[in-house]
Amino acid sequence: MPEPGGSRHSRVRRWHVDGQPALEQVMHHRPGQEWAPHWHDEWSIGAVLAGRCRFSLGGRRHTASAGDLLAIAPGAVHTCGLDADEGGETQVVMVYADVPWLAALGVPMPRGSARAMRQTIAAEAQDLCDSAGAAAWLRHAAATLADSAALLPAGAEPAGRAAQQVLAALQRAAVGDGTVAIDALARDCALSREHFHRIATRWLGISPGDYVRAARMARARRLLLDGWPIAQAAQACGFADQAHLTRWFSRHFGYTPGALAQAAHASPDSRVPQATAH
Predict the structure, then answer these.
(1) Where in the chain is the domain with CATH 1.10.10.60?
(2) What would be the CATH architecture of the domain defined by 161-264?
(3) CATH architecture of the domain with range 11-150
């Protein structure tokens, strides 16, 4: 539960294995907090401890309540919003884990994004205070979410040449600096801007502009984790300045670029299990 008068931003910290980052924990606690469409390169495994979490995944709306476990697959575009319970509390804990580390450690993961009501396991997320405990909890939660009954409905694969062209164009734009214009992408696909927008929204669940912005956010996050100064990361990703990046970054991830940089480069105070294949 957040302290009275505490930060309106989520709290983030990262843990290391052999000096390299392996796990990230984020604690969300502000009722009414909303996230713009975004995705993570890592697996996101979390628990709702209090309140309710509304989220959209691939254009489909879902709700997770206190006692629910959640898994969001890498690259899955999603939005999120938090509602308080009757006591006015909201608390969601998310643990993010790199895909190669999980694979090497042999952690069983769901086939896709998933949700399951497991109150006991969810409650244990409140007490994660070191990397070993976080890794053990993640393994337990992931195994539970790997049950096929927990899988959330997946969107259909894009059908038709036009849909495949649109998504391919957006994916190419996503690896650039984020300055490409949607009009130019539509012209490259020999489509009107309106037709391009309709196709993208149907298959992605968000507009082309939101998708490209989310790609810029994902790239900015990677650069910050690689040690780039915030101002340089902002410039590289097509933002006017550091303040511009900070506003959008907070809307996408719930915490500031400065908080992530501080967590990423803090001295590791504990270890997680070594990623050796079983």
Answers:
(1) 161-264
(2) Orthogonal Bundle (1.10)
(3) Sandwich (2.60)
The first and second tokens of residue 30, run together, are 């502000």
Compute the distance between CA of residue 174 and CA of residue 169 in angstroms, rounded to an integer: 9
Q: In whole angstroms, how far apart are CA 160 and each of 85, 99, 165, 167, 181?
A: 44, 31, 9, 11, 23
37 token code pair:
């469409």
> Per-residue confidence of the chain (278 residues) as pLDDT tens digits?
344 344 567 888 888 766 666 788 899 988 888 888 888 889 999 999 999 999 988 778 899 999 999 999 998 888 889 999 988 899 999 999 988 888 888 888 898 999 999 999 999 999 888 888 888 999 999 999 998 788 887 655 555 777 778 878 887 776 665 566 888 888 888 889 899 888 888 777 778 888 888 888 888 988 998 889 999 999 988 888 999 999 999 988 888 999 888 887 765 544 444 433 33
Distance CA 238, CA 215 (A): 11
Residues of each domain in the chain carrying CATH 2.60.120.10? 11-150
Rounded CA separation 247/42 (Å)? 22
How far apart are alpha carbons 216 and 36 in whole angstroms? 13
Q: Closest by alpha carbon to 269, among 141, 131, 152?
A: 131
CA distance 182 to 180: 7
**Which of 168, 171, 170, 190 has the alpha carbon at shortest distance from 182?**
170
